[in-house]
## 1
Amino acid sequence: MMKNKGTIITIAIITALAIVCAVLLTALLTDEPSDGYSPTPVSPPPENVSEPSENSTPMNLDSFELAKASILENIGNFEVSFKDDVDEAFIDKMSEAFGSDTVETLANALDSGVVSTESMRSVVGYTEKAFLSILNGELERTEQLGNTENRATTLVFVGDVSFSDGYSVMNQYRSRGKGAEGIVSEEVLKIMRDATVTMANNEFTFTTRGAPIPNKMWTFRGKPENVSIYYEMGVDIVGLANNHAFDYGPDSLTDTLATLDKAGIARLGAGENLEEAKAPYYYIVNGMKIAIVAGSAIDPYSTRGAKENQSGVFQIFDTVSMSREISAAKENADYVIAYVHWGIESTTNLTGGQKSMGKAFVDAGADVVVGMHSHCMQGLEYYKGKLIVYSLGNFTFSSHDLTCGMLKTTINADGTIGNVYYPMMQKDNFTYINSGEKGKSQFELLKSLLINAEISDDYTVTEPK
C-alpha cells in the first residue's frame, strides 16, 4: 500500500516537471526572433537628448520650403535678368502668383541644370517678360488669355471699319437682315472668329452728341448700340489712331472711348490725354507677352492730337515718337505690332514717309508693321526679316468696289512668326476673299506690289531666301 502510494507521488512529480519544461520550451520558441537574436531592452533617452541627425527623416518638412531652399542653393543656374532679386520673399511672391507647383518645377529644373531667359518658358510656362508682368502685378491694359490648344497665337488684322448711321454700310446691314453675314462673307468671319485676337481700324465715332468738325468733307458717327456688330465679327480690339476718331469733337471721342470700354472691346491710339492715347495694349497668351502700339500720321488740322491735358489721337508726324513707344513696349513684351495710319488715299503708290517710317519702326523693335488709310490694298515688304504691310485698305467702310486685304500673323509654339495675307474685295457693301479665277488679276497686282517678299498660292507671305 505504502509502496503504491510512493510510486504515485513519484509519477506526479515527474509529470509536473514535464509540463513545466514543455511550457518553458514553448515560451522560448515563441518569443525568439527568426534570426535567433534576442535584443536586450534599452531605456529610452532622456527628454533633453535629441536623436542623432543622421537618423532624421524629411517627412515632416514642407515640400515648398525644400523647393525654396533648393532654388536659393542653385541660384547660379538661374541665368535671367532678375537673378539678383531672387530671395525668400521673391519666391513667396512667385508662389502667390503662380502656385507652389511652379516653384517646385523651377527648383527641380535648377537642380538639374541651367534655366535661362531662352528656356524659361519651357520650364515655368511663361517667358521672362510675361512672368515678371504677372509676378509684379503690372497688368494695366493687359489681357491674360491663357493657352490655346496648339500653343500657337493667331492675330488677325482687318482694315477700315465704319458703322456710321446714314451711310451705305449700316443701311445694307439693316436692310439685308443677316447681321454681319450680310456685309462680310462667312469664310472671312470664320477666320476672324477663330483667331486668338482680331483687330480692326475703327474709323468713325460712337456718339449721338457733338457737331461735325468745321471744313471737313467727311465726318462719321454711329449710334453706340452699333458696337454689338464687333461681337458678331469676332473683333476684340480696335485702333483709334486715325483721321476720323475726332469727327464730332471732344464729346464724340469721349463717347467712343466709353462705348468701347462698356462693350469690352479693347482700344488704343486715342485717349483723354497723351499718356492714354499712346499707351500700348498687351496680351499674355501661350506664356508670351504681345504688345500693340498705334499711331496716326494723317490730318494734323481737323483731327486733334492728344496732349498732356487734352484728348485726341496719338499723332506721329516723324519716326521718333512712334519709335520711342515701340522701343518702350519691346522692353516689356516679347513681340510688338505697330499699327499705323499713313500714306495717301486711293493709290497703291507708297510715300517716302511710309517707307522710312516702316523701316524705322522695325529698327525700334516692331515684329510686324500693319498700315491703314489708303482705302485700297498696298504692297508688302520684308525688312530685316520683319513684315511691313503698307495698307490693308477698307474692310467695311463704303459702297465702292475696292481691293483690300486681311493679315493673319501666327506666333508659333516655338516663337517663330508666320504670315498669311488674304487678298479681298469690298464690293457692293460686301467683303470677301477674292480667290480663284475671279481674283486672278488682283493676285497678280498684289505680286507686282511686293518688295523683298514672296506670296504663295495659299497666300503665305515669306521673305525670299
## 2
Amino acid sequence: MKLNSIKLFLIIISIAFCICLYACGSGEVSNQQENNSATQDSIHTEKSFHRFDKTLVNKTISRINNYSNDTTQSYAIYLPSDYDTLKSFPLVIFFDAHARGKLPLKKYQSLAEKYHFVFIGSNNSQNGMQLTETQNIATEILKDAIARFNINPKLIFASGFSGGSKVACSFAFNNSTIRGVIACASPFAEQHKTVNNHPEIFLLSGNEDFNMAGMVQADMSLSDAGFNHQLFVFDGKHDWPDEKYFEYGMQWIQQNAVKQNLMSSKFLTESVPDYNSWKETHVAADDLLNQEMNDEQEFGKQFTTADIIYWKEKISGFQKCKTSKKNFALKKLCARELNCISMMGFVYSESSLNQNNLPAAKHFLEIYELADATNPDVWFLKAIYYSKSGDNNSAFASLKKSAQLGYADINKLKNENSFSSIIKMNGFQESIFLPVLKNAEKE
C-alpha cells in the first residue's frame, strides 16, 4: 500500500513536470513566433517607408541625373520643406516648351510649400520632338519619381506651357495614373474618342495669347465629350501664368480631390474665385472670335506670298487698335492678332535659317521685327542671319541687343555654329555671354 502510494506520487510528479515543460515550451514557441512576426513587420516598414531617397530632403530645387537608360535625361525637383518619407505627397510633373525644367518650379515654389506638393520639371521635353519621344520622357520621369519619393498614387497631376501643355495632355489622356492637368497657353491635339483616360483639365490662357481662341474651342469640345474641366482667361500673353493664376488651377484640382475624399480640405482656406468671370471681361463675343480665327487662317496663306507693304499695313492697323480707346475685348483681339503674326514670324524665320535660305529669312525677319521689335528672339535670329551672310559686326550688335532685351537660352548661344567667329570678337564675354548667362539664371 505504501509502495503504491509512492508510485502514484511519482506518476503525478512526472505528469506535472511534463505539463510544466510543455507549457514553457509552448510559451517559447509563441514568443518566438511573436518575435518573428515583429521582425517581419519591421522589415516591411523599412521596405515601405525607408526605401525612398532622403538625400534631397530640406534642399531647394535639385537636379536628378541618369535616372533612366538614357544618361542625357534629367529633371528638376522641388520637395516642400515638410516632405517626409514616412507620408505620401501629391505630385505635379511640369513640361516646358523649351525644356526649362527649373523655371516653373521657381515660379510656383511657394505653391508647392503652401499646398504641400512635390514639383518635378523635365529638362528634356521640348518643342520639335516627336510625340513618342516626349511620352517616353514623361513615362520615365513618373516611374523614377514613384520609386524615389513617397508619392500619393491617387494624386498625380501634369502641367505644361505651350508645346509642353500638349505633352502634359497627351500623357494624361493615355496614362490612367494621371488624375488631372493644368494646361497653360495651348490646347491639345487628341480626339477625345480615342483617348484611354479622362483626366480633369484646367485650361489657363492669357487674353493676349494667340492660342486663346483655340483654348476656348478646346473648352467647348471638353464639354461635348463629358470631361470635368474649367477654362480661366487672365490678363497676360503667351507665357507661364503668374503665380496667382496658376494657383487657381491648383485650387481647382484639389477641390475635386476633396469632393472625392482623396485629400483633406485643410489647406484650401482661401475663397476660390469665380472661374467663369472671364467671360464678361476677357473674351470677345463669338463673332469676334470667329473673325480672329478667320484672320489667322488668312495670315497662314499670306505669310509666304504677301509683300512687306501688305504686312506693314496689317501690323500698323493692329498696333493702333491695341492702343486705341476701343472696347476692351476688341483691343485684346488686336493684341492677339499681333502676337500671332509674331509667332509665325519666329517659325518661318527659324525654318528659313535652318535651311540656309537667306533671302526668305530676311523677308520673314522683317515681318517679325515689325510685329514684335522688343522680342529678344527677333534679334537672336537676326544675328544668325547676319552671321551666315558674313556680316559679323551686325551679328554682334544684334546679339548684344538680344541679350539686353533678356535673351536667356545659353545653350543655343553656345551651340550655334554660325557664331564661331563672333565668339572670338572682343567684348563677346562681357557684352553677350555673361548677360545671357545672368538672364538664364533668373529663369
